[in-house]
Structures are given as C-alpha cells and as structure tokens.
Design goal:
Blueprint: E1 3-5, E2 15-20, E3 23-29, H1 33-41, H2 44-50, E4 57-59, H3 61-67, E5 76-82, H4 96-114, E6 118-120, E7 128-131, E8 134-137, E9 143-145, H5 155-172, H6 176-182, H7 189-195, H8 204-222, H9 226-233, H10 239-254, H11 269-272, H12 277-294, E10 298-302, H13 308-316, E11 320-325, H14 328-341, E12 345-349, H15 369-372, E13 377-380, H16 384-388, H17 395-403, E14 408-413, H18 419-425, H19 437-445, E15 448-455, E16 462-468
Parallel strand pairs: 10-11, 10-13, 11-12, 13-14
Antiparallel strand pairs: 1-2, 2-3, 3-5, 4-5, 6-9, 7-8, 14-16, 15-16
Length: about 475
Amino acid sequence: MSIKSVSGSYRDPSGSVYVDGDKIIRKVSEEGADQYQWIREKGIIKLSTEAGFLVQSQDVTKKYLANNRGTFFFDCHAIVEHQKIPFISYPYEWSFQQLKKAALHHLDFQVFLLEKNCILKDASAYNVQFIGPQPIFIDLLSIDRYVDGDYWTGYRQFCQQFLYPLLLTSKTGVNFHHFYRGTLEGIDSATLTKLVPLHKKLSPNFLMHVSLQFMSESYSIKNPNSSQQRVSRQAPLSKARYEALLLNLRNWISRMNPKMGDRTVWGNYEFSNTYATNENEMKHQEVKKFIKQFLPSTVLDLGCNSGEFSETAIEAGAKYVVGCDFDEIAISQAYDRTEINQLNILPILMDAANPSPNMGWQQMEREGFSERAKTDGVIALAFIHHLAIGKNIPLEQALKWITNQAPCGIIEFVPKNDPTVKTMLAVRKDVFTEYNETNFRRCLLLNNKIINEVTISESGRKLYIFEVKK
C-alpha cells in the first residue's frame, strides 16, 4: 500500500492521519469509535462543515475496508477522507493577523459547538490551517460531547498557543515568531509575565488569563501534591459560564493589534522601489506570460513582499500561491491584500537563509519548509541578491535552493550597478567577485535550461525563465 503516516499525528489515541497518494485520510481507532459515531450520528460533522468551521470530510470506511487488508487497519473502526489543504503552515510562520484570525476561528467554533452540546477537547493552534485567507479546523476527533459541569480542558493550551503570543506582540512589540519556533507548545505564562512591563499587566483580562495562571502554576511547582486537591475542590463550570469565558476571550482578542512601527526595511518596498513604473509593469507582464506558458497550478513566490506578483500569478491562471517574505509588515500587507480580495494566496513569514526546520518529536513532528514547499512553479523577483550579497550565500548554492523548489520558474538577476545593490554595498566591503551575470548564467545552467531572458531596466535587471533539466 502507498499509505504513509503523517509524522505530526501521533498524540491522539482516538485516531491518526495518513497520506494515501494525493488523498488525506484519518483512521479512527476503536478507542475513538464511540466519540466518532456520536458526532457523526448527531450531524455535528456535517453542520460544522456547512458552517465553514471544519474541513470537508467524508466517511470512506466501506471503500477502504473492502479493498485493503493488513497492519494499517489493525484497531481500525472507521476511515475518513479529508479535503487536502494546499499548503500546511505553522503558527510561527503566520502574521499577527493570521494568528489572531485563527484564534477567533477556534473560539467561534467552540461557541458554535457548545450550542449543540459539544466541545473541543484540546486547543492546539496546529489544528487550524489556512486555505488562502480563510482559517479552517482540520481535526474532527477534537470534537467531543459536552457534559454538564465540564471545564475547558484546552484552556491552558489555548492561552499558550494563541493568547500569549498575541499578547506578547500587542503589549511589547516583540515578535512572537522566534519564541514560538523555539518552543512548539507556544509561550508559557512565566515567560510572558517576565516580558510584559508592570503597567501593562493591570487590566482585568491580563490578571485573569495571565497573572492568575502564572501564580497557580508557580504554586503547583512549589507544591506538587496540591494540584489534585485543588482540582477536586473546584465547583462545576456551568454551560453559561463556559460560554462567557469563550466570549470574553473573543472580545479581548478581537481588539488586539500588533505594537510595531509602521516601517521596516522592506515593508514599503512595493511603493518605494528603485525601478520605474514601466519597468514594474514589464515584470507583471512577464509573470503573466510565465504562468500562461507553463500553467503551474501551485506557485511559490519567494520574497513576495506585499503580494503584488502573487496576485498577478493568480490573475494569470495559477490556482494557489504561497508567498514568503522575512519582513513582518510586508507579510501583514500581503495577508490584508489576500483577505480583502479573497485570493487563493497564503503569505507566510520565512527567512530563506534560515527557513523553518524539521522540529518536534524525532525531528519529524513539524516538517521543515523545504519538505512542504514543493510546487509547480517558483517566482523569485528581486530576491537572489538578498541571499548572495545580503546573506553571503554562494550564488551557486542560492540558485540551486531556488530551482529545487519547482520544475520551472522565473528569477530576476539584479546587477551590481543597480541602485538597490549599490545601497546594500554602501555599508560593507564588496567581496562578492562571483556575483555577476556571467556566473549567474553558468550556475543556473548547471541543472536547468534557460527558456527565455528579458531585460527590464536601464540598470540591467534581467528576468530568466528556466526549466529544470530532466
């Protein structure tokens, strides 16, 4: 069989996720049978999907059990096929607005489920993915029945993976991404408490959702035998109070905005670059020609900035674009563009010189960027010089990394006499003797064919359309 386990799906004993060719399937174990049957028979899966909260899912048990046997189906109660997400991304790759939208989606889904006597038994941010600008919940086995008096068992996880990262950036302006990538479970109350200044901790919400948690967790560490006693003394949580807690968090988070300057190095690049309007228009036209010639369904836009060329790729016929940039404001602008225009574009925060690595259990739980970023076409406009000169990466290595992402693409070469490169070299010694067009062509031709090349500026900027040698 071609069925392959998804490495990040191992924690829930009620079921796990697999890839079968181009299909995503979930095996429901005997341990999860009762839970799955209940939410299915009550119509919760169907209602959640129709309301736009849950990924499209269908039971394919008969189809699979009729045609397959073997160890994969040991302890198997049911098989569910899910809609395939075009690109799996992680919270530490999202903009502030994306994490905020994912948090609100989770809370809205909880309120929706509570009205139907259901809950989400956990609150992992990794259970939310994006299809373009829209968040979608992907783990149907997180849905369970509500029992009167139940506490929100995922509350602490929600705080660490949604609330605290958002608070860190909204209260201090400190980027949550670096903390999140270093600790996959999010940010704990102790870390947040140390980073937020005293005068910003005095709101009732901060005291309730952060300070009280910090004091409780600190007490539990000092008195390890007290936790069970404290839980046993807690009064049941009424359904009304449960919903009030969810709505309180929703209202608070909905008002949060990132505290950061309105300018970064590349955050205003779309409107303040060094080439003329007609040169920019030529780039748009060449991107359109590339898309129409090679017909890539999925496109990777490296150095996407605010997403203008990602949008052009969609307009020309690409079905889905993943845009990457290391500038937080640029990615926020790209997400705003995507959301306003409802485009099939997913902007993510990513430094090409330090992309997301394989992380988690056995270094396989969260796949690195290169494992996920295989697309049909790649766009790298005004990008290569940031690797070769900005990061001192040898030109051959930089080109190999770019061309490994897709079987065809379009790369812009920016010569040293261009104003942008001159600015980069103004504050450092020019040790980049290999950075020239002759060497660029040589390196590109090592593993690729040059299909076309177009000069687009007086300074000698040139677009190279390539196809990987077979």
